[in-house]
Amino acid sequence: MNRLFYQPHQAGLSKVEAAADTLRFINPDVIIESYNMNITKVENFPLFMEKIRTGNKNNSGHVDLVLSCVDNFGARMTINTACNELDQTWMESGVSENAVSGHIQLIVPGKTACFACAPPLILASNIDESTLKREGVCAASLPTTMGIVAGFLVQNTLKYLLKFGRISNYIGYNALDDHFLILTLKPNEDCDDSYCRKRQLEHQLHPVVIEENVPTINTEVVHESNEWGNYIL
After folding, report:
1. What contacts 224, CB < 8 A, 6 or more positions away?
2. Which of 66, 147, 166, 181 is deepest in the core (most CB within 10 A)?
3. Which pLDDT does position 120 carry in this prediction?
4. Are 165 and 97 in contact (CB under 8 A)?
5. Cβ–Cβ contacts within 10 Å for residue 75, how many?
6. β-pair partners for 180
7. In terms of Cα–Cα distance, which of 59, 62, 50, 69 is closest to 87?
8. Whether CATH 3.40.50.720 fits 40-127+139-205
9. How far is residue 160's CA from residue 174's CA, in Å, rounded to a whole number?
10. How far is it, in rounded angstroms, from Cα 63 to Cα 52?
């Protein structure tokens, strides 16, 4: 998220190119495809949709999960629109502009609230986001907060993909008070997104169950030998 990937020698590269370069260096066995484009542009939306629709390991079906790590509402709404239309589960994440709080949210179309169900004031008021930014001034950036939020996002991604543990619908983090907020957000019947309303109707007919796989504790001794004579009392 944000600037965590970037290094001095990558100056001049696009953020996409630099992130891909760093990730390939960390783990060259992972296949990484990079696309340097603005997904909020109409001409780029079909390709974005296609990559979600056919981007699994065999390029034959939906991806398993979409992770949103973008930094503006327009991009989030674009991801929300695509995932609602394709009935694609995704996880949204973000850090506040004061850099001391953040959140992650699991969004299952029709089952949980989508990003448009309860839009931020900027969206509900039809305000152009670009008008709120001051020239030469950027939002606060604190790598520790972003690392914490990114860690939660990755942790819940692993739980979702590997099917273990309990995945919270929404986790909020306030660094100033060391406070965590866990919520369940229900979809809005009057959501502005028509596909969200459609998925809600489908869910009523065929409810989607988010499985919780809480492993049992295995008390069986794993290592029979005790070469060093260590005991826990």
Report:
1. none
2. 66
3. 62
4. no
5. 15
6. 173
7. 62
8. yes
9. 24
10. 6
Annotated domain spans of the chain: 1-36, 40-127+139-205
- DSSP reduced 3-state for 86: helix
E strands, the chain, in order: 66-68, 90-95, 101-107, 170-174, 179-183
Strands annotated E in 90-145: 90-95, 101-107
Strands (E), 54-113: 66-68, 90-95, 101-107
Q: Which of 69, 83, 138, 191 is catalytic?
A: 138
Residue type, 232: I
List all residues 6 or more positions away from 3 whose beta carbon is below 8 Å from its beta carbon. Answer: 141, 143
Number of residues written out for the chain: 233
Active-site residue 138, yes or no? yes
The CA-atom distances, in angstroms, between 149 and each of 74, 80, 81, 126, 174 are 20, 20, 23, 28, 11
Residue identified by tokens 């001794």 is 221
Condensed to tens digits (0 to 9), the pLDDT of residues 4-36 reads 678 888 888 988 999 899 999 999 999 999 999
Sign, CA torsion 121/124/125/127: positive
User: pLDDT tens for residues 76-135?
Assistant: 999 999 999 999 999 999 998 888 999 999 999 999 999 999 866 555 555 555 555 555
Q: Are 75 and 87 in contact (CB under 8 A)?
A: no
What is each CA distance from 172 to 14, 69, 96, 189, 226, in whole angstroms? 30, 15, 11, 24, 44
